[in-house]
Amino acid sequence: MTTATGTPAAARAAKRPAPRRPRGGIRGHEAAAGWLFTAPVLVLLALFLVLPILMAAWVSVSDWTGQGNPFSGGAHFVGAKNFSSLLTRDGLARQDLMTSLRNNFYYVLLVVPLQTALALFLAIVLNRRRLAGRGFFRTAYYFPSVTSSVAISIVFLFMFSGGGVVNALISSAGGTGPNWFADPDGLIHILLDKLGVHSAPAALANHGLLGQSWWDWLAGPSVAMTALIVLAVWTTSGTFMLMFLAALQNIPAEVEEAALIDGASAWQRTRLVVLPMLRPTLFLVLTLGLIGTWQVFDQVYIISQGNPAKTTLTPAYLSYTTSFNDQQWGQGAAIAFILFAIIVALTALQRFVLRERKADAG
Amino acid sequence: MKSTLGRGAAAGLGAAILALTAACSSGGGFGGSSSTSGSGGSDSGPLNVLIGSSGAAETSAVQAAAAAFAKQSGIKVNVVAAQNLQQQVSQGFAAGQPADVFYLDTSSFQNYAKTGALYAYADKASDPGDFYPTLKQSFSYDGKFYCVPKDWSTLGLAINTADWSAAGLTPADVPTNWDQLEAVAKKLTTGGRVGLTIASDHAGIDEFIYQNGGSLLSADKKTASFDSPQNVAALNYVKKLLSDGVLKFPSALNAGWNGEAFGKNAAAMTIVGNWIDGAMKSDYPNVKYQVYPLPAGPSGTKATLSFTNCWGIPAKSSHKDAAVKLVDFLASGTQQMAFAKAFGVMPSRESVKDQWTAAFPADAAFLAGAAYAQPDLALAGGTQTISDYDSKLAQLATADPAALLSAEQKNFQAVIQQNQ
Predict the structure, then answer these.
(1) Rg (alpha carbons) of chain A, rounded to whole number
(2) Fewest beta carbons less than 10 Å away: which of A11, B152, B205, B261?
(3) Could you report the per-residue pLDDT of A21-49, keeping only the tens digit for each?
(4) What pLDDT score was predicted for residue A325?
(5) Average pLDDT, stretch B151-175?
(6) In a mutagenesis test of the B interface, which of A69, A322, A326 is the best target, namely the one with the most B β-carbons within 10 Å?
(7) Which percentage of chain A shows pLDDT scores above 70?
(8) Is A66 on the interface with B (CB under 8 A)?
(9) What burial class does residue B111 get, using C-beta atoms within 10 Å of its C-beta: 0-12 exposed, 13-18 middle, 19+ buried?
(10) In this structure, are strands A208-209 and A212-213 parallel, antiparallel, or unpaired?
(11) Does A10 score more than 90 pLDDT?
(12) pLDDT band for position A157 (cuts 50, 70, 90)
């Protein structure tokens, strides 16, 4: 547990006030020189990070029509109108946003745990010292991550088409595959249908939240979205596997040997020794996964454009279509900020859940 | 030695940056001055033209036309084929430097006209009365005719002739009303093939609404009438075809669009625009088919949908007069006939109607629809609403048409209210 306590200790050391140095003399212009040397980066950050965010923030509370510079008089301040039509007013805008949030929620709910578990599993397998062809497997698993997502999306489009490879496999196993990218039925609805619930119970159909009935909220990811989930898990696991692998290789062999001497079984060693030592990496992988999955855009743009029946619509794609197709730039930017707020909130929550508890550290 | 080299390189770089900024500023200055003296007719461009090309044939045809215009008028023209037209046009407007002339679809037209981004020049074009009324309606906003229709398409009924005769049908059996359409669709449905396929969105289904005497938006876009009984009856008819299994949407036939399903002979008939010709020629050259006018509704009302693009000119362009000259050239009857021959479109001018019918006798059915064509659905700020309507239509087989249409009535009414 040395690494677990190491970080806070280092932080405490850093907080100790540094000894003051007299101003002037040979170090007198350090501050100016420091600013000078960081200036290029600061300028770049301001130009490409701060300014665009401020611009988007302004657009989200303005009626900018997409012509000319939004700062140059053409746009007027409209307060929270864009946000209120998305969140409080009953209408298509809110309905679309809520549908997209529901879709993306199920996407995140499945992709993040699956990709993390798969990446960890692959990393542990590849970390075994006596595995033949380790280099080959490492490359093979990492390959999807370095391939263009456009190319992969198009391959998936063929694989999951009604008469594609996946359905051929399913039918050779005796089943009938769905028409993947044209099937809007939610997995939970399909499951309930199998259990004998063929239509929405009145309690769920007649009550709802934010313009959607509970029955719609509880649809689960559609069959089409499931194909996108498979794609995401497959492409991102390689990257995260690499991160886990790097962390695993940082664990000293002695620690595991010590556990071995103490009589821990392989499962106990993994669960009680290796996993706790991977906590920082686990946090990194979960955070990156969470952020990446909430922002999913490219697969939707290429494969489904939100179809069928809007079950693959995601906030990022909705923001794009609202801005570019409907010329409602304010509302599009507002969607982006709502998405931003959701990501920040969920990341904070995840940080809280994964925090290092005092009892562990001591 | 090394330091001198470095200094030289730095000086060179500096000079290059200076030259670049000078070029930029002089370019801007030139643009600014020409906008003030633009009416003098001395504007020599260059005009930037952004097109959403259907392929190499269209790009090179437009480029050739632009070159001919440049030679005749002395105005330079750059034609750029966009990767994603809608997005690139948007970006141009946002950057304050839109292309001087660009393709504009009817739905985006409403959005740009509403925000005042477009130059309403159409009445200054030569013989504006020559354009088909349905096209003028598509490109009018608040009663003003804005931009010149480039060309257009209507829907017709394409029939696979081999399937047709195999089912024992003769040319006399070509459906002229809904009952006959249903009957032949039934007859043509065998085994793995369905009788009819149509696009699963408003562009594939709305014609039934118009054929039934219904309507969606008024011509002035101030009222919506989605939930009328005629509309509900029309969707009920389509739903019945779907549930009888004689009509299937392309996705149910493993096809990306209805033309593909028709070409693969997964369907014996399809309701499709004249873009089917190019697709069949390149992808399914051995499939023989014939195009007929669409059947009429129960009361005998004939209707088809029209799809079109116009030549948009931004209000902020600094070369407006030169741009109008170019559009006038491109939209002339002779030039449109040249385009029709190059990439199979229908000219937007009535004066070349007979010339076109003579050149393309097999496609006469498409132009026959000109008399009763209804403009494709478009509403300012309504792109999302239309796509919502589309996504619901795609689920028509399991939907309740009355509920579907009343939900859309509410959505479109909300957009109309927002526009006022």
Answers:
(1) 25
(2) A11
(3) 555 566 667 888 889 999 999 999 999 99
(4) 85
(5) 91
(6) A326
(7) 90
(8) yes
(9) buried
(10) antiparallel
(11) no
(12) confident
Instruction: Give me the residue spans of the domains in chain A.
Output: 85-130+236-354
Is the backbone peptide bond immediately before A308 cis, with ω within 30 degrees of 0?
yes
DSSP conformational letter for B95 = T
- The string of DSSP letters for B163-225 reads HHHHTT--GGG---BHHHHHHHHHHH-BTTBEEEE--SSHHHHHHHHHHTT--SB-TTSS-B-
Q: What is the pLDDT of residues A232-281, one digit of tens each?
A: 999 999 899 999 999 998 888 888 888 888 888 888 888 888 888 898 89
Q: Among A81, A69, A209, A57, which Cα is nearest to B418's? A: A81
Nearest Cβ partner for A326 among B116, B383, B391: B383
Residue-wise over B196-209: b if at least 16 C-beta within 10 A, else e? Answer: bbbbbbbbbbbbbb
Q: What is the mean pLDDT of residues B122-146?
A: 89
**Tokens at B87, concatenated:** 């997005």
Residue A272 near residue A231 (C-beta atoms within 8 A):
no
The class (CATH top level) of A85-130+236-354 is mainly alpha
> Does B395 contact A66 at a Cβ distance shorter than 8 Å?
no
| CB atoms A66 and B93 under 8 Å | yes
d(CA B91, CA B96): 9
- Look at residue B175 in the predicted model and tell me its pLDDT: 92
In sequence order, the 6+-apart residues with CB closer than 8 A to the CB of A91 are A85, A211, B411, B414
Query: Under a CB-based contact definition with an 8 Å cutoff, are residues B68 and B272 in contact?
Result: no
Backbone angles phi and psi of B120, in degrees to 5: -85, 90
Distance CA B298, CA B213 (A): 9
How many angstroms away from the CA of A81 is the closest CA of chain B?
12
Q: Do A65 and B117 touch (CB under 8 A)?
A: yes
**Using CA atoms, how far apart are residues B260 and B254, in angstroms rounded to an integer?**
9
Q: Which of A67, A162, A323 is facing B254, going by the closest CB pair?
A: A162
**B101-105 vs B304-312, strand pairing mode:** antiparallel
The phi-psi region of residue A309 (left if phi > 0; otherwise alpha if psi is between -120 and 50; otherwise beta) is: left
What token pair was written down for B229? 């009984």
CB-based contact B387 A328, cutoff 8 Å: no
Write down all domains in chain B, each with its CATH number in brackets: 43-152+307-368 (3.40.190.10), 154-306+375-419 (3.40.190.10)
Instruction: Give the pLDDT confidence of A51-88 residue by residue, as tens digits.
Output: 999 999 999 998 888 887 888 777 888 888 889 888 88
Q: Is the pLDDT of residue B411 over 70?
A: yes
ipTM of the prediction: 0.78
Mutate which: B110, B112, B200, B383, vs A, most A CBs within 10 A: B383
Give yes or no for B106 touching A (CB within 8 A).
no
Contact call for A306 and B252, based on CB within 8 A:
no
pLDDT of residue A359: 54
Instruction: Give me the phi and psi of B132, to 5 degrees please.
Output: -60, 140
CA–CA gap between residue B420 and residue A285 (Å, rounded) = 49
B36-45: per-residue pLDDT in tens? 333 445 677 7
> What distance in Å separates the CA atoms of residue B305 and residue A184, rounded to the nearest whole number?
28
